[in-house]
Design goal:
Helix content is 4%, strand content 28%. By secondary structure, it is mainly β.
Length: 92
């Protein structure tokens, strides 16, 4: 069985990007009625990951951490790691 989530848990994400030509910054925003930023037993924290292929090809590498011969870079964010530095806005 392949570990693929075919039905997304977040139906829509707004992505904004800024680049210098050699580096990229991404800002992701999504609507989330529940604030899940405190770790604990059985807690499923808010988080996201971005996967970027290291080479531009006609078809992207597999979404589960790339594949042999087709490396990717992955950045991972979790709500509890940045909650002290960047407080979350509550949607109105």
């Amino acid at each position: 069985m392949e570990p693929r989530l075919l039905t997304p848990s977040t139906p829509e994400i707004r992505v904004r990007a800024l680049t210098s030509g050699g580096e990229i910054a991404l800002r992701l925003e999504w609507v989330d009625a529940a604030v899940n930023g405190t770790p604990g037993p059985g807690a499923f924290l808010d988080g996201c990951a971005i996967q970027i292929a290291r080479a531009i090809e006609a078809s992207p590498p597999d979404p589960q951490m790339g594949q042999a011969g087709r490396p990717v870079d992955i950045a991972f964010w979790r709500a509890d790691r940045s909650a002290r530095e960047v407080p979350r806005r509550r949607e109105r």
